């Protein structure tokens, strides 16, 4: 079922084997039931499934963001050649941001409304690199210019509510890739956006992954977006991966009935 | 054939109240005229903030009109009082976008539907019981759902009840405000099929508001494209969309639809262009001039009117 293991090990930026997540809610159901997946360097891997199938939970488990009462088990979890097993909070803080970052569905909710955009980018830089405030400011402006903000200095002084949804999402991407992580997890980054803006963001993520040789785990329920951006695809249903493969194979020769049903729901 | 519902040069301005700042007027809908014939479905498309929902709410009488007139079967329904509007409410209904917030959490689905029926029609309880069972069956739910509360339903079921709520009093005209955009991909097609079937069975007329161009080809007969409160394009025959010359905004919208064929990636392969995200608040001349890839000198001076370029096809653009 897994992708061919012929690829070199150092090309894999994320390797999960047998991930189980069980929420401490009293029910016996596993939210994630034995998920294994790999993300390769410079490639975009899509994780598709309907709401409630556990795709966001996989992302949170990889980021170490699940609560203490939740039971998380895996036989192997490797992020950019770092084995994750009983590691300290401090080590986690190093891995998060430097090795792996995440962007979320609602860009307005993930930025702090009380601080300017510039403040939040500078905070991100200074928590990972030892630089002066002035240097951090210059880095931040440069980063925004990389993401095609023409008037980066003005954007730095704006509060999140002054920006449109698409601009906020691009600021989030800017913060996420500050330290050039090897892996970016994008959890439905375009679901809340207009089609024209969605096209811009998709193009940006695609170019980032190619330019910085970054692996992307792209979580979505929209098959159109997947056809547009992904190289490899995993289909998830009820906490399990039921089919995986290269995007052309999944779209043109699906094997599982659920995948076929998904493809039929394209308008 | 006379139009079922007609909007004549309708405008809507909102007053923006800010502390210490003089009240500003924001024009949400700017001089729109539209006629909808019985039995037709018109798709109203625009990005967020283009005023499409405001226009839909004005047709339903949920929002006052600042300028212009709205007619329902030749009767003016512009800014009627609540009492005078009531007989029209029965015929003009709206399906709202968010299905989770429109139901009273203390009422069961049956009680919610019953209240609407008894408020709008003079019928006995036994009769209303039958009507509720019938409408639930029509939207594909069993009658056990009457005793459930809104939080006990899934998103797709809630949207079905939402549709039942709008259709239970047999309206003639229904405004669907983004009925599928909050739903999962797999349920989307089911709901659109349901809307299509109900339209054929009950003889409904829809105004279908959406920002997603891929859904409208599935349900609509004609299409209206809105940008910043104005109609920039009207097309009588939706199958012509993408085939004939059109407004630059429409072509940007069409290019932004993700492909369904992975061998034919178009968005990621698009050439470097000037970013479309920077939208200025007010521009002189054509409202679209700051984003338009085909703009010329004259676009900045003259505001184009909506004019007919072919039969059943109107465009507001100076270049054509």
Number of helices of chain A: 11
Overall shape of chain B: globular
**So what's the overall shape of chain A?**
globular
* Strand percentage of chain B: 15-25%
Percentage of residues assigned to helices of chain A? 25-40%
Task: Give an overview of the whole structure.
Chain B: Keywords: ATP-binding, Nucleotide-binding, Transport. Chain B: Residues 5-253 form the ABC transporter domain. The complex is a heterodimer of chains A (267) and B (320). Chain A has a single domain (12-266), classed as P-loop containing nucleotide triphosphate hydrolases (Rossmann fold). Chain A is built from 11 helices and 11 strands. Chain A has helices at 55-63, 89-98, 107-110, 117-126, 133-146, 152-156, 165-176, 195-211, 223-229, 247-252, 257-264; strands at residues 12-22, 32-40, 44-48, 71-73, 76-79, 82-83, 100-103, 183-187, 215-220, 232-237, 240-246. Chain A is globular. Chain B folds into 2 domains: 3-91 and 172-257 and 275-315, 3-Layer(aba) Sandwich (Rossmann fold), CATH 3.40.50; 107-170. Chain B has helices at residues 52-59, 82-89, 109-120, 125-138, 155-167, 185-202, 213-219, 248-255, and strands at 5-18, 21-36, 41-45, 67-72, 75-76, 92-95, 173-177, 205-210, 222-227, 230-235, 307-310, 313-315. In chain B, the strands form 2 sheets. In chain B, strands 6-7-8-3-9-10-12-11 form an 8-stranded mixed β-sheet, with helices on both faces. In chain B, strands 2-1-4-5 form a 4-stranded antiparallel β-sheet. Chain B is globular. Classes of the chains: A alpha/beta (267), B alpha/beta (320).
Provide a concise account of the structure shown.
The complex is a heterodimer of chains A (267) and B (320). Chain A has 267 residues and is of the alpha/beta class.
Features:
heterodimer; A: 267 residues; alpha/beta; Rossmann fold; six-stranded mixed β-sheet; 11 strands; 38% helix; globular; disordered N terminus; B: 320 residues; 2 domains; eight-stranded mixed β-sheet; 28% helix
């Amino acid at each position: 079922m897994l992708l061919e293991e012929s690829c070199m090990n150092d090309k894999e930026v994320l390797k999960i084997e047998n991930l189980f997540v069980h929420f401490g809610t009293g029910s016996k159901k596993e939210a994630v039931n034995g998920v294994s997946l790999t993300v390769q360097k410079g490639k975009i891997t899509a994780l598709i499934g309907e709401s409630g199938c556990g795709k966001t939970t996989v992302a949170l488990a990889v980021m170490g963001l699940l609560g203490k009462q939740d039971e998380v088990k895996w036989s192997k979890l490797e992020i950019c050649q770092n084995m994750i097993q009983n590691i300290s909070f401090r080590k986690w803080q190093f891995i998060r941001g430097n090795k792996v970052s995440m962007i979320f569905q609602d860009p307005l909710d993930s930025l702090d409304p009380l601080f300017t955009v510039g403040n939040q980018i500078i905070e991100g830089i200074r928590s990972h690199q030892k630089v002066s405030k002035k240097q951090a400011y210059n880095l931040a402006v440069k980063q925004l210019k990389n993401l095609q903000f023409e008037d980066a200095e003005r954007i730095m002084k704006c509060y999140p509510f002054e920006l449109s949804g698409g601009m906020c999402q691009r600021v989030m991407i800017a913060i996420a890739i500050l330290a050039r992580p090897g892996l970016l997890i994008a959890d439905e980054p375009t679901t809340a956006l207009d089609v024209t803006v969605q096209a811009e963001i998709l193009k940006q993520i695609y170019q980032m992954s190619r330019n910085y040789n970054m692996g992307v785990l792209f979580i979505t329920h929209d098959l159109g977006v997947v056809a547009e951006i992904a190289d490899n695809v995993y289909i998830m249903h009820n906490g399990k991966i039921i089919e995986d493969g290269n995007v052309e194979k999944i779209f043109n020769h699906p094997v599982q009935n659920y995948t076929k049903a998904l493809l039929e729901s394209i308008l | 054939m006379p139009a079922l519902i007609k909007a004549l040069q309708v405008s809507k301005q909102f007053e923006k109240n800010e502390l210490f700042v003089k009240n500003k007027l924001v024009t949400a809908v700017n001089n729109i005229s539209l006629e909808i014939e019985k039995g037709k479905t018109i798709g109203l498309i625009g990005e967020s903030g283009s005023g499409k929902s405001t226009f839909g709410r004005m047709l339903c009488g949920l929002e006052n009109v600042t300028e212009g007139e709205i007619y329902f079967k030749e009767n003016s329904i512009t800014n009627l009082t609540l009492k005078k509007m009531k007989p029209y409410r029965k015929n003009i209904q709206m399906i709202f976008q968010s299905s989770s917030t429109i139901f009273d959490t203390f009422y069961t689905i049956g009680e919610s539907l019953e209240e609407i029926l008894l408020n709008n029609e003079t019928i006995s309880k036994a009769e209303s019981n039958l009507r509720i069972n019938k409408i639930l069956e029509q939207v594909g739910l069993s009658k056990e759902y009457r005793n459930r509360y809104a939080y006990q339903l899934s998103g797709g079921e809630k949207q079905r009840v939402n549709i039942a709520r709008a259709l239970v009093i047999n309206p003639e005209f229904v405004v669907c405000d983004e009925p599928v955009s909050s739903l999962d991909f797999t349920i989307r097609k089911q709901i659109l099929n349901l809307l299509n079937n109900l339209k054929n069975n009950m003889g409904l007329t829809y105004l279908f508001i959406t920002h997603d161009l891929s859904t409208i080809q599935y349900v609509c007969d004609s299409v209206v494209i809105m940008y910043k409160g104005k109609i920039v394009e009207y097309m009588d025959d939706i199958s012509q969309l993408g085939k004939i010359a059109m407004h630059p905004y429409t072509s940007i919208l069409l290019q932004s639809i993700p492909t369904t064929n992975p061998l034919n990636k178009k968005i990621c392969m698009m050439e470097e262009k000037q970013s479309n995200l920077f939208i200025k608040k007010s521009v002189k001349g054509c409202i679209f001039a700051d984003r338009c890839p085909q703009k010329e000198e004259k676009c900045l001076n003259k505001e184009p009117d909506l004019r007919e370029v072919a039969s059943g096809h109107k465009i507001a653009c100076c270049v054509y």
